[in-house]
Amino acid sequence: MQQAEIGLIGLGVMGSNLALNIAEKGNRIAVYNRTHERTHEFLGEAGDLAGNIIGCDTIEEFVAAIRPPRPIIIMIKAGDPVDQQMELLKPHLAANDIMIDAGNANFHDTIRRFDALKDSGLTFIGMGVSGGEEGARHGPSIMVGGTEDSWKRVEKVLTSISAKFNGDPCVAWLGTDGAGHFVKTIHNGIEYADMQMIAEIYGILRDGLGLSAGEIAEVVAGWNKGRLNSYLIEITEKVLGAADPITGAPMVDMILDAAGQKGTGKWSVIEAQNLGVAATGIEAAVAGRVLSSQKQEREAAEKLFGLPKAHSVSDKKALIADLESALLAAKIAAYAQGFAVMAAASKEFGWSLPMPVIAKIWRAGCIIRSQFLDEITSAFTKDPHVANLIVTPAFSEMVKETDGALRRVVSHAALSGLPIPALSSALSYFDTYRRGRGTANLIQAQRDFFGAHGFDRVDGKDYHHGPWGSGAAIY
Ligand code: NAP
What we know:
Layout: E1 6-9, H1 13-24, E2 29-32, H2 36-45, E3 53-56, H3 59-64, E4 71-74, H4 80-89, E5 98-101, H5 107-116, E6 123-130, H6 132-138, E7 141-145, H7 148-161, E8 164-165, E9 168-169, E10 171-175, H8 179-208, H9 213-223, H10 231-241, H11 264-275, H12 280-293, H13 295-305, H14 316-349, H15 355-361, H16 371-382, H17 393-416, H18 421-433, H19 440-451
Helix pairs in contact: 1-6, 8-11, 8-12, 8-14, 9-10, 11-12, 11-14, 12-18, 14-17, 14-18, 15-16
The chain binds NADP nicotinamide-adenine-dinucleotide phosphate.
NADP nicotinamide-adenine-dinucleotide phosphate binds next to helix 1, helix 4, strand 6 and helix 6.
């Protein structure tokens, strides 16, 4: 029997779709799932593609079915199951075989797994896959971390299954060990911020302007034809336009306002903090999900405090136009922060992350895919090492054009008591970032007063402590 080009373990939502995608692109693939019934069910559902798929009930059979050096994708529940699966697989592998963790791993685990295999002759790739079920089946965005040699072994297959943007494959080797999973984590962090900002804008339209879900869907549909054109805006329109099959009411009105989360948003915030980078949009989004889940507490607080009256709006059309620009302005801040986190991580972990390439492979296939990422690609291609996306020529123009709208929207929401943690954080981030003389001089003075921490002077003189105890008061 002709051996497979690649193997895949884990026929859940992502694994089964990825396997079908691989088979469809003309690659022979061997598959294995812990629960064997699932493998048989999968083969039964694969239709014509089953001819390119070798279903295996044992690890021995599975490994023997793949051409060495064997690339084996592990697409199972993240965390301990991956370590367990690797341990079961290892004794059956030979030199240069590659275990590829394609789940949503914490990149610290990826570095640990990569290092643990260093002297074994085996190789490890940490691979971020974005695009959900649909992306896995028809073309995801794929972020690869590992050795360059192992990447070369899988490049052809991964290129064949990845999403394409104007013909460019949305897959790339981004660096060693945890680089791919780190970039996937930040992708998800940006996704959290983007979704939170869209939800805040929805809140202003619903609770500030009193628009129905259907009316908001129409507004959003218009935005999708403009600069906000993106997958998340597209699905927002679809979600808002859908009816509940049980009651006939808008589906979105029947969904509990308590959002779940699995961890990548939180990891993004933790890493941003560890690296000393302000990622206020992602922080606001994660905090927003936490507060959303405290439904009972929020209901009790509403009873206690009541809700402020919505601030009157004389020109609804103008506010709606402002909301579109405000969302763009806030998006710029969140994406700039995400890229700044990656730039810091790249230095810290020695990855040399290629920023233009990352923007490029996010243009299609992944959840944050958008026209906007094509503009980010151009900005980073012109200046790959720019300190902050905000100061690139194209984006500084966009910020100048939209920050007034963001300011008006934030003011309107604040006066109406509408929660906008991510939008307001974007405005504060921008106002802080663009102010040359901030207020940290006072913080430094306070730190020196109580902790003798010292400070640098604006005139550069060699005198680093204040006269706090010497009675040198000037008032
Ligand atoms: P899923 O549908 O719940 O499938 C889980 C798979 O993991 C099943 O094949 C299951 O095998 C296997 N598994 C669980 N514990 C195992 C263990 N201890 N040993 C061996 N196999 C085990 O999950 P999924 O949505 O496909 O997600 C898989 C990975 O992709 C996760 O890391 C997830 O975070 C990531 N991811 C998901 C999405 C998404 O949109 N769903 C997007 C990007 C990334 P059994 O059939 O035997 O239970």
